[in-house]
Amino acid sequence: MNRTDRFLRACRGEPVDRPPVWLMRQAGRYLPEYRRVREGVAFLEMCRDVDRAVEVSLQPLELVGSEAVIFFSDIFVPVAGMGVDLDFRPGPVVADPIRSLDAVEKLSDPDPRESVPFVFEILRNLRAELEKHEVPLLGFAGAPFTLACYLVEGHGSRHFSVLKRMMYREPAVLRELLGRLTDMTVAYLNAQIEAGAQAVQLFDTWAGLLTPEDYRAWVLPCHQRIAAAVDRERAPLILYVQAGGHVVDGMIEAGPDVISLDWRLDFAEAARRAGSRVSVQGNLDPTALHASREEIFRRVRGIAEAGKAARGHVLNLGHGCHPDTPADGVRAFTDAARALATG
Length: 343
Ligand code: CP3
Description:
The protein is an alpha/beta fold. It has 16 helices and 9 strands.
């Protein structure tokens, strides 16, 4: 079974010999080879540099044995295309946070193929290269709620209290902002599929900050609209929420092909709930990549066993690779996935 077939079959809940494996943030500072390409180039500049972005996207295949490639970029790249003045230090910083209806209405609504054409050039180049190796290419987008967290707050935050204040005091502004971001996300993901992405992941990292009731009111409708409008015949949709143990049912209800979960929950229980409805992705704690090779193998066997309760399982971390991750730990993680086939 080649890597593309294994990955797409696991996403759709069709039989496979073992779970496919890749890692969120697999191209990153933990690799000296990445740091070399990145040297002297600002992060956004790197995202726009087609040759460099293609090069670092491919690095995890050989260097750590990953079995899928996610294109190198950031969830805020298309937002810059909407006219938002944005910088990375190292997280996203917005010069004029969006706090009024007027500011929402000033956002432009461009065709992403025109506002961020380099994204699609990166994807087309990667797909041509990966086709030779039978490795799947993944696209991605930030989900409206997580994008709004930074756009309203202006920067990263532990609680995103400015965003939450808007939710309670100016719901019409937040609703309009989420609506605009949902339209953009649908257009962006479909353009990525058009350019060669074979699966797409929606990152709603911060949606787990909400109560189950607020998640249903604010997040679920955006996910449902995206799940209904993305070309799923051509590319399965993976939905990621960090610390989302209390919203697993809502994630399933949105109707993606795969739900991607972190380590702060009982993965076996989540997989049982997913059952025949949806596949699961996850969920090793990224800091466990510091453990011994034997311990990483033991944990992967446990996660794979738990994942069997769902119709399909894609092995991954519960969040992105940290910059201090040992590359040997990442290699042990992907080797452990391959060892599952032979028991
Ligand atoms: O998975 C991948 O390798 C694909 C590329 C990717 C990046 N960011 C590259 C990046 C993806 C999918 C993201 C998603 C992203 N970006 C999310 C959602 C997922 C998550 O990690 O929670 C969020 C919330 C962001 C916003 C963001 N971008 C933050 C908070 C930061 C700084 C902190 C950090 O983790 O480094 C970034 C910068 C960023 N995005 C870097 C990379 C490789 C680091 C830039 C550098 O090398 O200096």
